[in-house]
Specification:
CATH architecture of the largest domain in chain A: 3-Layer(aba) Sandwich
Radius of gyration of chain A: 20 Å
Bound molecules: 3-isopropylmalic acid
Keywords (chains A, B): Manganese, Metal-binding, NAD, Oxidoreductase
Largest sheet of chain A: 10 strands, mixed
Strand content of chain A: 15-25%
Organism (chains A, B): Metapseudomonas lalkuanensis
Structural class of chain A: alpha/beta
Largest interface: A-B, 69 and 69 residues
GO molecular function (chains A, B): D-malate dehydrogenase (decarboxylating) (NAD+) activity; magnesium ion binding; NAD binding
Pfam family, one (chains A, B): Iso_dh
CATH class of the largest domain in chain A: Alpha Beta
Helix content of chain A: 40-55%
Oligomer: homodimer
Number of domains of chain A: 2
Shape of chain A: globular
CATH topology of the largest domain in chain A: Isopropylmalate Dehydrogenase
Distance between the termini of chain A: 24 Å
Order of helices and strands of chain A: EHEHHEHHEEEEHEHEHEHEEHHH
Catalytic activity (chains A, B): (R)-malate + NAD(+) = pyruvate + CO2 + NADH
Chain lengths: ~350, ~350
């Protein structure tokens, strides 16, 4: 009987407020369903660590983390302390890439009780999942600057699309669509503007689609696709996208479904060669840090995704995932909820309420 | 007394339906306010032309167009006939780049009478303008493919940010913000993910902002910025963005304000060394072409922007612009309107109604 090792990494800002609530619920679920979990808290991977050590993480971070089964991650970034590209490329984006977490799953759902910013939309109208490529594409540090400091200065930045990288995320997305009732897939593109990378992406989408004759699929340019998230959110089922487009769609989707405060994500290495990472979609939100008003539900829901993935089919873990989701639904519908959902509760009150509802 | 030469270019699909209505209104305004305009219709720059000639435009397109003051452009693209990256890079994107139309202005406004997809938003809540860089950035055909056809295949695509290109669009946007009541500017970025280009963009934004102490400005990552277009559209005034981010925001903005069918754009060469281009934000929409249900208002509004720019301060042209805008407002509020606005009118009925309302 295996004990799953979980690294709990708060990071920056409200990461420190929501992670304890996530842990509270995950531990409650572990007791209830008899799950075998062990936890270790990691104090590095934060901007404060950077201010002390001149780097986001110790040099042996890879060795120290690779033995974990999962990283349960709060949020990182505090631009007034450390520029974002340094803090993120020094932690979260390193994890995603070096642990080959190439699948980023971001479910979007409108829950009963959540005030929807879209007029006339009901729970059930918005229920789709964004599958985001998570290791390459537009997120790259390749490139550089020429004629620095002169009026002729310019910067080149590479986007990188490999067949391996593109095909494996497409396969994951098509496989997922195959298991869903509507069997529908939309691929985000922008092949009319980005004339090298995106035509290649389109080509691989078409090739992959041939292997899935049952799937109804289309491709949509990112500009009109964003517009349709607002105008026709009910038409989506599985949306697969490159790293940048997936990033955009997975913030926009939850906004359309009421709040980014509940949106979870799973950064998976499906082969389980390395730890996978589970984190809220929202960031560290320095502007609200310290007030205990951050919504812990994204963190809690990410915990449920973690248990589901760890269990890998084990019924107890599945039950824990489903139980947490039900508890979340109940608390969102009946309260207490944080201010982003129109309530007055604190982060801790919501965390306790979900744990109790289990 | 100068006569302005306008090239009318329908392009593909509903470009052919909306352009005549734009011309109808622009010509009516010319009669009413005594404007000096001449028109010539250009039958190339379309996918049908490509099917006959193997290229989107004749080789001497630049010579033939450069003497015009403005290009009044429908829409281009018909993916079933010609792949989008070929049709667009062979026409519209060539115009923007070779005629150095580096400013793309895209106003977003919620009009009385337009059903808003955002709950509880009133006209007045949404009134901002997206200023999009239009000649470089992520839109590039630099790059290529390696190990083609093998499993090791990969593609590199360059984004290009020059100091000249970045600074001139920022200057335009800050200057514009300076003329507006709220004096507020938001710069779209993604410097946490795109680690070379976007930190440079941020740096130039900060440098430019120093010259405009009266402007309240901030920068927001594109993911959360998209979310805020939905959640807090009232907080924006001038939004300045790179080519790709401007593309996304200027489709999303109009969607939040009800329909892309009314969103206009002006692709300006502010120095007037080359013709500027005026076109709807919407595309050629092959799916609805031939049914005469396309909303011509984006085309008509683009015509108003054209007159304003051509006049360059001339009161008659200003009056024509304002008159067309009032006529648009009236027709949207009182009808007739096309199906995208909940009406049953045809493209032509709406065009006539706006012309009559002048
Ligand atoms: C058709 C396409 C190349 C174009 C763009 O992306 O610029 C369009 O979406 C626009 O916004 O004008
Ligand atoms: C913080 C940032 C680098 C990150 C991303 O863009 O991937 C975040 O926005 C996310 O969506 O996980």
């Amino acid at each position: 009987k295996k004990t799953f090792k979980i690294a709990a990494i708060p990071g920056d800002g409200i990461g420190n407020e929501v992670l304890p609530e996530g842990l509270r619920v995950v531990e409650a679920a572990a007791r209830k369903w008899g799950l075998d979990l062990s936890f270790e808290t990691i104090e590095w991977a934060s901007c404060d660590y950077y201010l002390q050590h001149g780097k986001m993480m110790p040099d042996d971070w890879f060795e120290r983390l690779k033995g974990f089964d999962a990283l349960y991650f709060g949020a990182v970034g505090w631009p007034d302390k450390v520029p974002d590209h340094i803090s993120l490329w020094g932690s979260l984006l390193k994890f995603r890439r070096d642990f080959d977490q190439y699948v980023n799953i971001r479910p979007v759902r409108l829950f009963p009780g959540v005030p929807c910013p879209l007029a006339g939309r009901e729970p059930g109208d918005i229920d789709f999942v964004v599958i985001r490529e998570n290791t390459e594409g537009e997120y790259s540090s390749l490139g550089g600057r020429m004629f620095e400091g002169t009026e002729h200065e310019f910067v080149l930045q590479e986007s990188v699309f490999t067949r391996r990288g593109v095909d494996r995320i497409l396969k994951y997305a098509f496989d997922l669509a195959q298991t869903r009732e509507r069997k529908q897939l939309t691929a985000a593109t922008k092949s009319n503007g980005m004339a090298v990378s995106m035509p290649y992406w389109d080509e691989r989408v078409a090739a992959m689609a041939e292997k899935y004759p049952e799937i109804k699929w289309d491709k949509q340019h990112i500009d009109i696709l964003c517009a349709r998230f607002v105008l026709q959110p009910d038409r989506f089922d599985v949306v697969v996208a490159s790293n940048l487009f997936g990033d955009i769609l997975s913030d926009l989707g939850p906004a359309c479904a009421g709040t980014i405060g509940i949106a979870p994500s799973a950064n998976l290495n499906p082969e389980r060669n390395f730890p996978s990472l589970f984190e809220p979609v929202h960031g560290s939100a320095p502007d609200i840090y310290g007030r205990n008003i951050a919504n812990p539900i994204a963190m809690i829901w990410s915990g449920a995704l973690m248990l589901d993935f760890l269990g890998n089919g084990d019924e107890r873990y599945k039950a824990a995932h489903d139980g947490i989701l039900r508890a979340i639904e109940q608390v969102i519908a009946e309260g207490p909820v944080t201010p982003d959902l129109g309530g007055k509760a604190s982060t801790q009150e919501v965390g306790k309420a979900v744990a109790d509802a289990l």
